[in-house]
Amino acid sequence: MRGFQHRLSEFDARGIRVVGISVDPSDVSKRQSQKLGYTFPLLSDPDAKVIRRYDLLHPGAGPKGADIARPAEFLLDSDGIVRWVNLTDNIAVRARPQQVLDALNRPSPVGQ
Amino acid sequence: MKRKWNWPIWVGFVLVLAGLFSYEFFARFPITRDFPWANFLLFGIGAALLIVGLFRAFGRPQAYRGKIFGSFFAAIAVLCVAFFSYVIFYVLHQVPASAGAPHVGQKAPDFFLLDQNGQPVGLGDLLSNSKGALLIFYRGFW
Asked: Which of A39, B51, B96, B142 has the fewest CB within 10 Å, making it most exposed?
């Protein structure tokens, strides 16, 4: 997410709102975003309700066997339709900002 | 005659340890995290030096030290690389398939969550007055 913070102005310029979502409680997110200088919102889903709704639960992968989110990125248009999605098969490999910006630059599918 | 210090064993061993413990550092940059080639490079150089050192120790034991501690260090180095490879090639790939995650063209499920300041944020809020949203689900800092 550090990379997305670095290039946040490019997402702002395209009118794309960037948010992070995890099981972290708000106070942990607040501490981390202050420490790392993140200016986009970090949303807190402590019961993993939304994470489950998106089928992104990684059961038992957190501390003390807690359920957490697997890494995933979704680019939505203004109607909330998924335009691009990245479901990594390696926890250490996440989407890079350039991939998302490239997806934004591609022409929309027919009918848009 | 006093036997000579077998430096490749020591330097090789230190490089293998450096390869293991520098993971956290190299993982900060996508270019060295997506595939940890920098760590494997350190392992490779370290292993080559260890082999050179062991050849010296066993080939000319009257001139070089290191038959016992060299073997011991080499065994630890092998364990380090095996553990690292297990994590990189197996543990990191244990990710759920998420077949039910929203596909391209589908509507993203709605949500309403608190941000880091305790302010409620809904998907509708993110999409109003914007051209779209990027949702980044992450494992968390705990």
From this structure: A39
